[in-house]
Amino acid sequence: MLENLFKGTGPITKLILKQNRFKIVAWLLSLVIVTLAVASAYPGVYKSEQDIMAYALTMDNPAMIAMLGPGYDAADYNTASIFANEMLIFTLIAVAVMNILLVSRATRADEEDGQMELVRALSVGKLSYLSSSLIMAVMLNGILTVLVGASLSLLNLEGMDLEGTFLYGAILGVTGLTFAGFTALFAQLSETSRGATGFSFAAMITFYLIRAIGDTGQEGLSLVSPLGWAVRTDVFVENHWWPVLLLLLLLVVLIGLTFYLNSIRDMGAGFLPERKGKIHASTFLQTPVGLAFRLQRTNIIAWGIGVFVLSASFGSILGELETYFADMEILQVYLQGDSGTSMRDSFISLLMGIMSMIASISVVMTIVKVKSEESKNQTELIYSRAVSRNKLLGSYLGLAIITSFLMQTFIATGLWSVGSWVLTDELDTGTIFLSAYVYLPAIWFLVALTTLLIGLKPKITGLTWFYVVYCFLIIYVGDLFDLPEWVKKLSVFHFVPYMPLDDFVWSSTIAITIGSVIVSIMGVIGYNKRDIIG
Q1: How far apart are CA 160 and CA 469, in angstroms?
Q2: Which positions carry the signal peptide feature in this UniProt record (predicted)?
Q3: Do 234 and 145 contact (CB within 8 A), yes or no?
Q4: 156-165, 191-200, 477-486, 498-507: segment of lowest average pLDDT
Q5: Three-state DSSP state, 272
Q6: What is the DSSP-derived secondary structure letter of residue 265?
Q7: 352 close to 335: Cβ distance less than 8 angstroms
Q8: Total domains in the fold of the chain
Q9: Which of 13, 212, 444, 482 could form a disulfide with 132 if both were Cys (CB 3.0 to 4.6 A apart)?
Q10: Which of 41-55, 96-110, 422-436 reaches the highest mean pLDDT?
Q11: What is the C-alpha to C-alpha distance for residues 122 and 53, in angstroms, rounded to an integer?
């Protein structure tokens, strides 16, 4: 009986791996290379015992604990433990995102597109497609574990023992598998891939917030979150393996429940059915821009709430910056470029850059929807009516621009509202909002670059995400690791004035905007000339 349920798992696994091979290789290379690059740079950042002790002092700050997780005892800090303390939680989130996107694509998205139905028409078992998707996740995270563990061990940094390096890799792998399990479960509950992905990201954010709240005072609450378990491995110090075992146990439960739900539901159905819509579409929905907005309404709202809450949480620590960071040389180098500038302005400048990069993800997703709808053969249905290519692509471009304004407004509002509440002197409203809006041209350039790829070579549109990650790394660690100037200039965000630390510069703002318009026009021309998939 069981053999029949899983019949054909091997060939289907090969099919799924072949379909996702480029994404898998890209994700693995990105994660391993970034991990190695950052780890190898740490000895040059924390050069002295004074730098290490300064970092240990910063980890007494509840805001830092909420962001990174609980720190170590001051005597336990060295190059390796600081690296783990700073990078583990962010790498865990990146690995979780990788698993959510790949497993959602290999489960509910394939079912939604009809590919699973074609495969199930053959002599294969009912659970074979799901099992193949999970096998892909196991292979992916297993390879990641080995690559990260082995490559870190070769660096031979201070405090980086062999057990610790492979524990670092293992906790990344099992956390990724856990979120793969959650995504597979949500794929059974939701009727759409968008719903499965949305539930998965909501779970990830919820687990992060629970961990953050618990780590700052309610440790029992942190133990409810898988991310709370993961940051308690004490990598390169105590090397606790119990979080790995707990995550594996949770994974077994998730997989068992997922297989059961998959076995009792019908193809295309979900246990949380979509809300029934209206019988007749509104006049606005019947327009290209109305349809584009309706398809991405939930995504825009969710991202707006997310960036507002995150900005507000950073605004809540503005009153403590001088207390914790003023006398720390290493952090002054990180946050403050010239003498005489306030720590608050430096922090806001860095924060605006990072938050703008995060917000740009939702904006790029808005324009990428053009390509995904085309891949699903939905676009040709629109073009069967009296709709021009310029009108359709222009609708998505316009929506992306509006989304960028909304996201930057949410960022500024969150930081200003909470920051003004905790500070004795109120933040200047105009300065905060201008510090957010100054990044709009750079975000528009990302939209333009995506449009160009959609117009000329839609198959490589995913390269935009590599550029987004590159820009984020330049903002986050470019100055800290003293990267060459030409490397920084490859990022369009490098040319944005770091307000309020720097003065507003019209020349760079206008130049980036004009460049974005030119690149967008090139993309529109290419889109009009090429064949539509379908």
Answers
A1: 26
A2: none
A3: no
A4: 477-486
A5: strand
A6: S
A7: no
A8: 2
A9: 13
A10: 96-110
A11: 63
- Tell whether 276 is covered by a domain: no
Among 271, 299, 315, residue at a domain's last position? 271
Q: Which of 231, 249, 271 finishes a domain?
A: 271
Q: What are phi and psi of 272, to 5 degrees?
A: -120, 85
> Is 257 in the same domain as 298?
no
Do 236 and 295 have their domain in common?
no
Same structural domain for residues 286 and 246? no
DSSP, collapsed to helix, strand or coil, labels residue 190 as: strand
Q: Is the torsion defined by CA of 175, 143, 67, 200 positive or negative?
A: negative
The pLDDT-based confidence of 408 (bands split at 50, 70, 90) is very high
Q: Report the alpha-carbon distance of residue 93 to residue 293 in Å, rounded.
A: 28
Q: What whole-number distance in Å separates Cα of residue 24 and Cα of residue 136?
A: 10
Q: What is the DSSP string of 488-514?
A: HHTSGGGGS--TTTS---HHHHHHHHH
How many CA atoms lie less than 13 Å away from 40 in the CB half-sphere? 11
d(CA 424, CA 404): 31
Structure tokens at 20: 């996702």
Task: Please indicate, yes or no, whether residues 286 and 248 belong to a single structural domain of this protein.
Answer: no
Q: How far apart are CA 150 and CA 20, in angstroms?
A: 24
User: Any long-range contacts for 476-479 (C-beta under 8 Å, 24+ apart)?
Assistant: 476/354, 477/38, 477/41, 479/333, 479/334, 479/337
pLDDT at 346: 76
Output the pLDDT for position 322. Answer: 60
pLDDT tens digits, one per residue of 219-235 = 778 888 999 999 888 88
Q: Where are the alpha helices (DSSP H) in 341-428?
A: 343-375, 379-383, 389-422
For residue 235 the two structure tokens come to 């990598």
**Do 55 and 176 sit in the same domain of this protein?**
yes
38 with 145, same domain?
yes
- Round to the nearest angstrom and report the end-to-end CA distance of the chain: 40
Among positive and negative, which fits the CA dihedral 480, 485, 487, 492? Answer: positive
Neighbours of 482 (CB within 10 A): 11
Q: Which two tokens stand for residue 62?
A: 């509840």
- What token pair was written down for 293? 């907005």
